[in-house]
Structure formats: structure tokens, C-alpha cells
Amino acid sequence: MRAFLLLLITGLLSACASTPLPPHDPDMAWVDLETQTGKLVMAERLDNKRLNDGRYFQVSPGSHELMVRFDFEVFIGGMGMFSDPQERLCYLTVNYADFQPGQRYRLQARSLGFNAYARLYNAEGKVLAEERLVNCLP
């Protein structure tokens, strides 16, 4: 039974991973997600509404609140001895008031120790906004 569940979950995840991204609507702004220090960053909510596809945000021009799920590992230990890494899950919220149609943005989540951070960048790499709210579990 366990093997069947594992096979089913693997099949579902691979189906999601192979689904191509939708075409970019030129009347909307596109937000890519990125992390260099974590395991996973996924779009969770747009203006407090749950999203079906967590790989990106596509937003209308204007002001929006973006919430991402960010998973990363932390190492706990003392006196030079580290234990196995432990998972940490955080929800990061970023507000930005001036999304422009046809523009690409990048939301980068990162960790430093137990803390999680997020920044929104424009196509030229300029920081436009930083997280306003961070909620983390363990």
C-alpha cells in the first residue's frame, strides 16, 4: 500500500512539473520566483486569494499583495556539533503598489539562519519592495 501511495504521489508531482507555464499576457505583469538559499519558493496567495499554480504570479497593473511559501533548512547544534538539518516553513508577504503591464519582476526569497526574507526586483535588478510580514513554523 505504501509503495502504491508513493507511486501515485510521484506521478502527480511529475505531471505538475511537466505542465508548461501559460503564455505571458502583455496586459499583465509577470513575477518569477527564485531562491538561492532555500529548497522551495512557491506563490501561495495573490491579494489574499489562494492560487492554483505556485510557480509564478501574473498580476494586473497596480497594487498587489503577494504571499509566497518558502521552505529552507536550518542546522541546530552547539559546541561545534551540528544535528541533521531541520525543515523550516515560512510565509512571506510583499506589497507593491506599481506593477506595470508587460513588465517582468523577480521575487527572491532567502534565508539567514532561522530568518527568512523576500525582495521584489524589477527587470533591471532594482529592489522595489521587501517583505512586510513573515510567519514561520518551527
Map the helices and strands.
Layout: H1 2-18, E1 29-35, E2 40-46, E3 49-50, E4 56-59, E5 62-74, E6 77-78, E7 81-82, E8 86-99, E9 104-112, E10 115-121, E11 127-130, E12 133-137
Parallel strand pairs: 1-9
Antiparallel strand pairs: 1-4, 2-3, 2-5, 5-8, 6-7, 8-12, 9-10, 10-11
Describe the structure.
Residues 1-17 form the signal peptide. This is Lipoprotein. Keywords: Signal. The chain is mainly β. It has one domain (26-137). The chain is built from 1 helix and 12 strands, in the order H-E-E-E-E-E-E-E-E-E-E-E-E. It has one helix at residues 2-18, and strands spanning 29-35, 40-46, 49-50, 56-59, 62-74, 77-78, 81-82, 86-99, 104-112, 115-121, 127-130, 133-137. It has a 5-stranded mixed sheet with strand order 4-1-9-10-11, with no helix packed on it. A 5-stranded antiparallel sheet has the order 3-2-5-8-12, with no helix packed on it. Strand 9 (104-112) and strand 10 (115-121) form a beta hairpin. The two termini are 30 Å apart.
List keywords for this structure.
elongated; about 140 residues; mainly beta; five-stranded mixed beta sheet; five-stranded antiparallel beta sheet; about 10% helix
Helix content: 10-25%
Give the biggest beta sheet: 5 strands, mixed
Write out the strand line-up for the largest beta sheet, numbering strands in chain order: 4-1-9-10-11
Sheet/helix structural class: mainly beta
**Number of helical elements:** 1
Strand content: over 45%
- Topology order in helix (H) and strand (E) letters: HEEEEEEEEEEEE
Domain tally: 1
Shape type? elongated
Q: Low-confidence parts, pLDDT < 50 over ≥5 residues?
A: none
Gyration radius over CA? 17 Å
Q: Can you give the mean pLDDT?
A: 87
| Total beta strand runs | 12
- Distance separating the two termini: 30 Å
Protein name: Lipoprotein
Keywords: Signal
Organism: Pseudomonas endophytica
Signal peptide: 1-17
